[in-house]
């Protein structure tokens, strides 16, 4: 701390250059925060999936259905303690831009396999009594202002026509990243109205009695339907959820690519700034060495200067991202779970410190190795 005034004075020497470099860090850390929030939004559902659940789909493709008769046969597999099923509906509300997930499910068993969701039990019972009833997620209800008792018309894109639903209840997630952007309605309502695909479901969700028994259960389920007209592919629910995310592109790769380009550019910009600053102060560094400053001390001073730039930029950028993410969530309500947790803020700050130290390392080594005579010769 006793050298802080010297470091601060060096930063104020070229105020425009210092401000622009801090601004570069600020923009980079702001992008870091936004990209982290987007990644969490897309992968949050994957991260919270139960380790005791498996998904059973058609081996050919996810869009190929499975017979409803498979339910009882899967339930007979040793190690399976529960089962439910769902079918993707794929409708739109009022306008094609108003897309959100809708799934036809078994009202008697669906939420039993998903204890991470909370709801009013009376609303659940109302849904089970109403053939046209549905349960909507909290974020979806906020997006469109849905309330219990509302009637929602959905335009079918797979099964045509207008389908009317009554909002029986609203479900929440026990964790912030839980997906509450969808709507669940009764499978029997779909079954009685659809023109094709009767007697089939999109996929099954299986609960394991013992998660450690997953490998054997997976093999036994798939062996049960081997060589049948509808062979199955059983996988962990994390893998199943990831397949949905991949339909929107490789978000993980996109985030990593953009982030890497941004930070490499930032490293070059900051390193160049510090190199110019050291070059301009060559004579002063020689004088400091003459006055008794050690090589290690000058190394630390130069790196500290770069780190201080990084700290200021990181604080501003991450603060801006922390404020901006909720605004982005309101603008993009379809990204359920869009948030920036404190752990990611801390990771971003630490990363900025490391980047600042790395950017200042080469110029600092140059200052440390400078010979006094060479430095004074430039006066």
Number of domains: 2
Number of helices: 13
Secondary structure class reads alpha+beta
> What low-confidence regions span 5 or more consecutive residues with pLDDT below 50?
none
Write down the secondary-structure element order.
Answer: HHEEHEEEEHEHEEEHEEHEHHHHHH
Strand content: 15-25%
Computed over alpha carbons, the radius of gyration is: 29 Å
**Approximately how much helix is present in the residues?**
40-55%
Average pLDDT taken over every residue: 82
Question: How would you describe the shape?
Answer: elongated
The number of strands is 13
The biggest beta sheet is recorded as: 11 strands, mixed
Taking the alpha carbons of the first and last residues, their distance comes to 29 Å
